[in-house]
Structure formats: C-alpha cells, structure tokens
Design a protein that fits this description.
This protein has 631 residues and is an alpha/beta fold. It is built from 21 helices and 14 strands. A hairpin with a 5-residue loop joins strand 11 and strand 12. Its EC number is 2.3.1.269. It is a multi-pass membrane protein.
C-alpha cells in the first residue's frame, strides 16, 4: 500500500488560508527594477508560515511511544489486561487533533515497530535463521499502526464520523485484513487482552473476537474524546497559532454526551449478554481425556538418535494416565517420531516411479501401525497421536503433518492432515522464484510439508472430535470452517463435541509465546461454543470450555517429580511451562449454538468494508492543490 498522508489529509499547509492570496506564491519575489524583496510580500509570507506551521514532532513521539509501552504491557509476558482499555488513548489523541504534527506518521510507525519487535521476540528462539523472520514480521505488522491513524483521521476530519465510531471500525477492519494478508496473522488482537473477563468475551459467539476488540477501542476513543485540550497543549500536540477548531477542542457539548451514553450502553449491553449466555450453559460430562505433555526442544525432536527417548517418555506418561481410565489419550504434534507410510494402493512399479529413493519394503512396513494399535488396546482408550505421514501421491511423495486417530476396537481409524501451514516453518513461499529465501529457514532445501485437503471427524462411542494442529487454533475462519465441515459430515448435522489441538511449542523454550498461543485459542471456543483440549509439547496443555474458561483439571501429574500440584504456579498465578506432565479431565460438552459458526465474520467484514470505503472515497474526493499560474 503506497500512498502519502497528503493523499488523505488537507492540513492548513496544503490549502490556501483565508488570509492568504491563493496565487501569492506564484508572484515573483523580486521587483523587476530592484534586486531586493518587496517588504510587504516578505512579511506576509512570514505571517502565513507562522499561522500554518504544525506542532513539533516531540508530542507525537511521546504519545505513540506511550501507546507502544502500554500495549506491550497489556499482553504476555506482563499480561496486565486492564491496560488494554487505555493503551490506545495516547494514539487516539493524535487522531483527535485537527492538524497533524511534524513527523507524526514516522513516530507512529517507529513506535508500532517497537511494540511488535518486543512482543514477537519469541520468534527468534526457534533457530538463528528466524531472526530475519522475527524482524520482517515486526516490520510488516507495525505498518498497521500509521494506517489505522491515517484512516481514522480521514474518517473523523474529512467525513465527520465521530471518533468513538471511526476508531473501532478502522481498527477491527485492519485486524480482519491482517487475518488474511500474507497467509494471515491473527495474534495480538486488542480484544485478546480481555480473555480473563469471561462475561465480556461472550459476544465472540456473534462477532468473533473482533467484537471484543471493537468494544475496547470504542471505549478508548470515547475517553480520548473527553480529554481536555490542556492535556494536548501540555503534550505539545497543538501549534502556537491555533485555528478556531483547535481552540474549541475543550468544549463538551451534546454530541459528546450522546456518544458517551451510547458507548456505555453498548458496553453494558455486551456485558449483560455475557451473563445471559453463561447462564444458558448446561455443560454435560463428555469423554475423560488425558493430555500427555512432554518437554522436548525442537532441536532434539529432529535428532533420530533421540526418537527412542521421546517415545519412551510419552509412553511412560501414557502409562501413568491409564491408571485414571481415560476414554481418550492425546499426544502432542509430531511427538510420535516414526512416520506413517501410506502407499495408497499404488503398485510396486508406480511406487518405484514416484519415489525411487524409498525401498519398496518400507511402503509395507507394518511396525508403526502395529505399535499404535497395541498401545490403544493396552490403554483401552482411543488415541490421537501427532506424527508425520509419508503418502504416495499421483506424481510425487506427499509429506503431511498429521493427527492420527486410533481406536482400541478398530486400530487406525482416521487421519487429519494439517491444512494451514506456517510460512518458513512448514513451507517456503516463492521457493522457485526467490531461492535466496532458503537462508531464512531452519531447514534444508528439501524441507516442507504439503497442505491437507479438508477437516476430519474422529468418532468414538457417542462422541465426535475435530482435530486442529499447532497454530491452526489461532485462525478464526479456519477453525469455524473445521467445525462446520465436521458437523456437516455427522449424521443429522450433529455438532461436533470437542476440538482437539495438537501443538509443538518446543520451538520457543518456555517464552511468552506459549501463554499467548493458549489465550488466542480460548477465543475459538467461545466463537464456536465448542470446548477444546490442547496437548502441547513443553506446554501449555489445557482444557478450555465453551465459555473460553481455561479450567483447572481434575488431575495433574508432575512427570518430573518436582512437587508441582497444578498446571498453575500458586506463587505467581502463571501457567507452568517446560515440564513433563499429564492433565486428566472430563471434557465439558456444550449444549449451545453459535451465530458466528453459522454466519462467520460478517461483523469484521463490515468493518473492513468501512475501512476500504474510507480509503477509496478519500482517494476519489481528495482536494488537489491548484497548479501554479505562470506569469
């Protein structure tokens, strides 16, 4: 998106003022009979320059920097959610002033980059090559901050939309765009800061998490609109020579009273809706589930010499879990290190043509299948196991990141192949066009997995589960699609009972990524009124109910024998991470339905339409500076 702020904003420096001769700049400064400037013209130019000079840049740097710090503190690792309600107020003051300051958008972008760089620092922990991806993602996401201010200023000052309406519309519209652009990045939505306020986030089953973001930004804008002009003067946001509009910023009239009343009414309506929806829940006990959590860094996972120890640790934890007679046992993503080989009915000749490097006997090797079937029988429980799948395709060998479903009465029953791949982590975009990008990945030239085709149903007894793998649980529209596809495949369109997430967060060494991943996943449960269980290598494994509540499990087993009695540290109130553990609980099945599941992102889509409408209308209606008149 390449445009300048002049495209949208016509400050007094862009157009002639009432006191300024529209063509004065085209009059020669020198008299034809004299080498000196006409004194009157020189004085008039000085006066006009003083009247139209913007405020200095330091106020923009101060306020945008304050927003960056407060916003960072509202997310993990500090995780002080109440700051989410005020962190955008300083930035919104830069929207409220009629004339932008010097270097305002530069200051906003740099401050946004400061926030994104600090928040995404966990990305660098995966591999030294990921430093480039960390900085690149921070550069990209930081662009949304000046674009937000630019669009909101355009809506407020060009089209006279009230700030408490314009700001949340533009913010949510941009969050929605971010969920799709460049494969999507649905992390760090401002609404995620409120995950602890369970009643408030219930609106997500209508609007998605975007509705919570809308409410937070709306109240921040309402508060920013009520702040006195003296505060903006103290922050050096207003120039020395003020226009009548700038002098009237202190006036609180009927408009401010009405919009404050509307904002508070919406807030209490959303809160009331949350209490009503929670009272309608009649959770029913579902399958007793054991979540097996190992503690293996990814560097170990890719070492074939460590595969045996990884298997034995998970097998030991599974044995501990079996004592509590679970119905379902879940291993994290790719923690069963031997791949599942699928010839898919190909003949020996076809297999040799497709993959001459793979010995024919490997295609029919039954040991992994037998091992998994025996595990399920011995546990007398269904298994959901994360592993790699090597499958014979029509022209090549396909490699999938899979969740395998194994039943004690049937053996291997079904398989789900991950649909949403992580760029640079699971595939290389533009591999053939830009081969140098290979240096920014932690793998060799042949790395990458193929995308799965569709959702899967895992059925056992009277229950149906739908798996999602790794970061798929952070993508709102993807999880909704999985829920709908799986429900449609059930007899009589019966909704699925539970989402099962298999994750390997061993890349990130116990950083804040583990916490933020769990928080983001909780919103998927509210949106679809479907509980979720998460088995996560290194943590945080958890059971989440249909209200988005991360529940305390019935049993917690410390696999490291360090005396832990809960997955929450009682001293800090934070989740324990980087440990071997077992979590056993009964899944709380939800009887409610969701409008979000049925209608999708209608709300965020409408906000996105408004943002694009403002953008294109500003382009179409922009005022052009008159062309110079030649003498």
């Amino acid at each position: 998106m390449t445009f300048t702020t002049a495209t949208f904003e016509n400050s007094p420096t862009d157009q002639p003022t009432m006191e300024q001769d529209p063509v004065s700049d085209n009059v020669p400064l020198k008299d034809e009979s004299s080498n000196e400037l006409p004194l009157g013209k020189d004085i008039q130019n000085i006066i006009n320059t003083a009247r139209t000079s913007p405020a200095p840049a330091r106020g923009a740097w101060l306020l945008s920097g304050l927003t960056a710090v407060l916003m960072w503190a509202s997310f993990t690792p500090l995780d002080f959610g109440p700051l989410g309600w005020v962190c955008l107020v300083p930035l919104l003051l830069l929207v409220r002033i009629p004339r932008k300051t010097r270097l305002m958008y530069t200051a906003i972008y740099c401050s946004g980059f400061l926030f994104t760089l600090a928040s995404f620092q966990w990305m660098r922990l995966g591999d030294p090559s990921m430093y480039v991806a960390w900085v690149a993602l921070a550069i990209y996401v930081a662009c949304f901050f000046p674009v937000f201010v630019l669009l909101t200023r355009t809506a407020v000052h060009r089209f006279h939309v009230p700030l408490p309406a314009a700001a949340p519309l533009m913010w949510v519209g941009l969050e929605y765009m971010r969920a799709y652009l460049l494969t999507g990045f649905s992390w760090y939505y401002i609404g995620h800061t409120q995950y602890r306020w369970i009643e408030l986030i219930q609106i997500s089953d209508i609007t998605g998490a975007y509705g919570v973001s809308f409410l937070v930004v709306m109240l921040a804008a309402c508060f920013a609109d009520l702040l006195p002009a003296s505060l903006m003067k103290a922050a050096k946001l207003l120039p020395a020579n003020q226009t009548p509009e700038e002098k009237n910023l202190d006036q609180i009239g009927l408009k401010q009273v009405v919009q404050t009343a509307v904002c508070l009414s919406l807030f209490f309506a959303v809160l009331g809706y949350g209490y009503v929806r929670r009272s309608q829940a009649a959770f029913v006990d579902g399958p007793r589930t054991a979540l097996i959590q190992g503690n293996f860094p990814t560097s170990v996972k890719h070492d074939p010499n460590a595969w045996q120890s990884i298997y034995l640790k998970h097998l030991f934890l599974t044995g501990v879990a079996v004592r509590n007679q679970p119905d379902l046992i879940i291993w994290p993503e790719t923690m069963f290190r031997w791949p599942l080989i699928e010839p898919n009915g190909k003949t020996s000749q076809e297999l040799q043509t497709i993959a001459p490097e793979i010995p024919l006997e490997k295609w029919n090797e039954p040991s992994a299948r037998k091992l998994l079937s025996n595990m399920s029988k011995e546990a007398n429980a269904a298994l959901v196991i994360g592993l790699d799948t090597i499958a014979a395709g029509d022209t090549k060998v396909d490699h999938f990141n899979s969740a395998l479903f194994v039943r004690p009465d049937y053996g291997i029953s079904s398989r789900y192949d991950k649909i949403h791949r992580v760029p640079f982590g699971e595939y290389l975009p533009l591999r053939d066009t830009l081969p140098f990008l290979q240096y920014f990945t932690p793998y060799g030239a042949a790395f990458g997995i193929d995308p799965g085709k569709s959702a899967a149903n895992f059925k056992f007894q009277n229950w149906t589960f739908s798996p999602v793998i790794c970061f798929e649980d952070t993508v709102p529209h993807l999880v909704r699609s999985v829920v709908n596809q799986s429900s449609a495949a059930n007899p009589e369109n019966k909704p699925i009972d539970c989402l099962v997430n298999l994750t390997n967060d061993g890349w990130f060494h116990g950083s804040s990524e583990l916490d933020q991943h769990l928080i983001t996943a909780a919103f998927r449960c509210v949106e679809n009124r479907t509980p979720m269980v998460r088995a996560v290598n290194t943590g945080v494994s958890a059971v989440i109910d249909g209200d988005g509540m991360i529940v305390e499990p019935d049993f917690f087993i410390d696999g490291d024998n360090k005396g832990r009695t809960s997955f929450v540290d009682p001293k800090t109130g934070r989740w324990n991470k980087s440990m071997n553990a077992v979590i056993i609980d009964t899944i709380p099945l939800d009887n409610r339905t969701s409008l979000y599941t049925k209608y999708g992102d209608w709300f965020a889509g409408a906000c996105c339409f408004c943002a694009l409408f403002v953008f294109f209308m500003a382009l179409l209606t922009r005022k052009r500076t008159p062309a110079p008149v030649k003498s």
